[in-house]
Design goal:
10 helices; lipid-binding; 283 residues; DegV_C; 4-stranded parallel sheet; 13 strands; Hypothetical Protein Tm841, Chain: A,domain 3; alpha/beta; binds myristic acid; 2 domains; lipid binding
Length: 283
């Protein structure tokens, strides 16, 4: 039986204990303040990042892992695995997927499958967790990849940024011409379409945006309560706890997780952002 490792990039923000429990390897993206580059999770924590964002003059930037770091990580995993499944954030918002593929093409003696999650954050993590569970059950890589592809149909994530200018500045907001002149006054509900971020609906206040996202979850959940749901926050742990507690009451059979927008995604969404992601069981 082929031994399969699962590797994901840091932007899946799977809480550390859960990631370690499932033996998912992680490769970090970088956040850059002026001349200083930090590997997120390893060299800068999420708390430190939001603190620095408030105090540093230069706004942060982000960068993908280098080909060299991918090669090193693959080589290490290849010491005790025959195959590697790599789950990356959407290729529409980062070059990470392409770099993972280029590095994979340079490796011999290990079979590497790079999967573009077409999303990011903990919804990306749901793909990695499924791959890890199936690998542990001894499923072959083709079956795992088939399941991951099927999951894409059922994956949903809606989010909002408290200050849209970060997304705009980083060039990751498509369809923003709809909002020219009012970027700071509106709180549109955002989502991924064809791998990129687009506004889903124009909403004026954060309260209405959150209510709309919860409404979308409600419509989609129907009677099917066995969902995996995640509340994702940009340095708003209390608010996330409050939303998660409400969701647990509403959907008692659901697995409700709390995750966060870490440094790299926080650079593009800014502090105060909120999102909810979910996936229905996929057969
Ligand atoms: C890079 O420099 O390669 C990383 C670029 C990351 C762009 C992030 C844009 C915001 C993504 C929001 C995801 C929300 C998912 C629920």
């Amino acid at each position: 039986m082929s031994k399969i490792a699962v590797l994901t990039d840091s932007t899946s923000y799977i809480p550390k204990e859960l990631r370690e429990e499932h033996e998912i390897a992680m490769i970090p993206l970088n956040v850059v303040f002026g001349e200083e580059e930090y590997k997120e999770e390893l060299e800068i924590t999420t708390e430190q990042f939001y603190e620095e964002m408030k105090t540093k003059e230069a706004l942060p930037k982000t960068s993908q892992p280098s080909v060299g770091l991918f090669e090193e990580t693959y080589a290490k995993l290849a010491e005790d695995h025959d195959e590697i499944i790599v789950v990356t954030l959407s290729s529409g918002i980062s070059g990470t997927y392409q770099t993972a593929v280029s590095a994979a093409n340079m490796m011999d003696g290990v079979s590497i499958h790079v999967f573009d999650s077409e999303i990011s954050c903990m919804p990306q993590g749901f793909f990695a967790l499924t791959a890890a569970r199936m690998a542990r059950e001894g499923k072959p890589s083709n079956e795992i990849l088939e399941r991951l592809n099927a999951m894409k149909t059922n994956m949903r994530a809606y989010f909002m940024a408290d200050d849209l200018s970060h997304l705009h500045r980083g060039g990751r907001l498509n369809g923003a011409q709809l909002f020219v002149g009012s970027l700071l006054q509106i709180k549109p509900v955002l989502h991924f379409e064809n791998k990129v971020i687009v506004p889903f609906e124009k909403v004026r206040t954060a309260k209405k945006a959150l209510a709309r996202i919860e409404g979308l979850l409600d419509e989609d959940a129907g009677d099917n309560e066995a969902l995996d749901v995640v509340v994702i926050h940009g340095n708003r742990p209390e608010k996330a706890e409050e939303i998660a507690a409400d969701l647990k009451k509403k959907y008692p059979a659901a697995n409700v997780y709390i995750s966060y927008f870490g440094p790299v995604i926080g650079t593009h969404l800014g502090e105060g952002s909120l999102g909810i992601g979910w996936i229905k069981p996929t057969v």
